[in-house]
Structure formats: structure tokens, C-alpha cells
Design goal:
Largest sheet: 6 strands, parallel
Strand order of the largest sheet: 2-1-3-4-5-10
Structural class: alpha/beta
Helix content: 40-55%
Strand content: 5-15%
Number of strands: 12
Oligomer: single chain
Distance between the termini: 51 Å
Order of helices and strands: EHEHEHHEHEEHEEEHEEHEHH
Bound molecules: guanosine-5'-diphosphate-beta-L-fucopyranose
Number of helices: 10
Shape: globular
Amino acid sequence: MTNQSSDMKPYDLTGKRVWVAGHRGMVGSALVRRLQEENVAEVITAGRDVVDLIRQDQVENWLGETKPDAIIVAAAKVGGILANDTYPADFLYDNLMIEANILKAAADLKTEKVLFLGSSCIYPKFAEQPIKEESLLTGALEPTNEWYAIAKIAGIKLCQAYRRQHGLDFISGMPTNLYGPFDNFDLKKSHVLPALIRKADTAKKNGEASLEVWGTGTPKREFLYVEDLADACIFLLKNYSGYDHVNIGYGDDVSIRELAETVNRVVGFEGELRFDTSKPDGTPRKLMSSERLQNMGWKAKTDLETGIRQAYQWYKENYPE
Ligand code: GFB
């Protein structure tokens, strides 16, 4: 850990051209919306048809022509526990390529500021709770998502290496489990929260007696509403300039059973929960310590039930059946 107070350095976004890599995803689209509130000159976006982030030549050429002042790396191949476990090669390769291509091209161009986003799964499976930034690389990873985690750890290290070797202002933020508008509601690939929203909505419409929940229901997870995450990212971009990655969490966690009960209450499904223990539980708990970010002056605003109501509203508007 480096000296924390010296890690605070203002970066004025006024008149800057900011590229949000991954703007079509849940995180990227929230960042684009949040950046509209800043006095930036331009929020740059580019779909895969314009630049395929897995292709180094395309990233180099496009970035060399576009030359943004700042970049937020929200592009990633993401998915829930089953997708991570089923497609290890894609999660490792795609994420390594995306981050390496962007960070190298940004370093060559001496981009003023880069924020790289990772995930709370970078920490050891049995890390001490709440998990502090210092826990990184102190133990073995959770096997269902070690491929994704290794790629994200490499991304943090790339940012640190470019800072150390070239003095570049590359920082990293590690969000906890996220949810909100533009989430993935595909039951085979999604994370638990959108899956439960969809299952509860379907079960209610079909008048079913019960709803299936994967695993034992005992693992605990921390959930952060994506608009809060976007706000934290802009806060870090404008205020933080340190070597160490920074946790971005909500500050509290719930068991999967409690989460399912809350979702059912919001959706209005009154049936039973049925636990499918043939599905993996994953890591038992991963509540992050967000003390460092709080000490800088940022805290999440949206409580879990309010966030779930908003995510459910978005789901109903976008998945009419
Ligand atoms: O959200 P999730 O897929 O990923 O699963 P992780 C969290 C917990 O919810 C697990 C349970 O214990 C699941 O077994 N669960 C219950 C369900 N019902 C369901 C369901 O219908 N769908 C899903 N998906 N889960 C991911 C990592 O871990 O978290 C990624 O794989 C990433 O790498 C992401 O870090 C944030 O929280 O276990």
C-alpha cells in the first residue's frame, strides 16, 4: 500500500473527451448516462463494428485516430457463476486481450487518465471479511471464476506497471456484484439478481407454486446498484491517482435466500423457494471493505430494495411478454 493521502489528485473533466469502452453493457451505459452530468467535451463510444477490442491492430489504429483524453475500461466478457464455469477459455482470453490492447495503446499515446474496472472475484476464496484491498494475492481463488479473476488481476497489474515504469495516471476500481438497467437477463448466463427477477416475474405470471434457486441459498453476496457504481467511477476519475486498486462496494451483504425473498416481495410472487443443490454455490462470502473509498468521501446511496424495484421496473419495460 502506498501513502493514501498523497493518492488524492484532482483531474478536471471539463472539456475532456472521454472514451467509455464497453458502452453497450450495463456498466458502460450507466457511465455514459452519468458522464452527461459532467462538463465534458465529448463522451466517445464505439461498437464492435467500429473497433473489435480483442484485435490489437484495430484498437491501436482506432485509438491512434481518436486520441481520447481519458478512458474508462468497462468492456469485458462477463457472466454469472455458470457462464464463468462453462466458458473458462473465453473469460480468460477475451478479458486479457481487451485490457491488454486498450491499456498498451493508451500507454503508447500517453493518455492522461485511465480507469480500469475489475471485480470482487479477484480476492482469495477464503479472504478475511470484509475484504480489504491488501488481500489481493494472499490465497487461492474460487475455482468457478478463477479464469475471469486472473484476467482482472492482470489488468490491475498492467495499470500498476504502466504507472511505475512510465509514470502514467492509470488507476483501477474493483466493484462488487452489480445490478440495474441493461443487465443480462438470460438465465443461463446471467448473475443471480437478474435471474431471480426474471424467474419471479415468470412464476407469478404463470401462477406457479415455487421458484428454483441455484445452490443452497447460504452464500452471501454484496450488491451495488449500477448507477451508484457509475457515480463512484466518476468520483475516482476526478479525485484518485494512486497505485493501488480501490474497492467499490455497498457496505452490506445478504444471503442468496434473503435476496430471493426480497425479489419475490418486490415482484409480488408468493410461492415457495426450491433449492437446486446440484448447482454450484461459488465463494461462500465476498463482502468488500469500502473503507478506503469512504475515507476519500464517497458512499453508495441506493438501498437494495429500492435498487431491485428500479431494476424490476426496467425489466418490465424492456422484456414485455
Ligand atoms: O451472481 P452469480 O452467478 O455469481 O451467483 P458469483 C451468486 C450466487 O447465487 C451463487 C446463486 O451461489 C449461485 O449459485 N444463485 C441462485 C444463482 N440462483 C441463481 C440463478 O438463477 N442464477 C445465478 N447466476 N446464480 C460471479 C463470478 O460470481 O460474480 C464473476 O462468476 C463475477 O466472475 C461476478 O465476479 C461479479 O457472485 O458467484
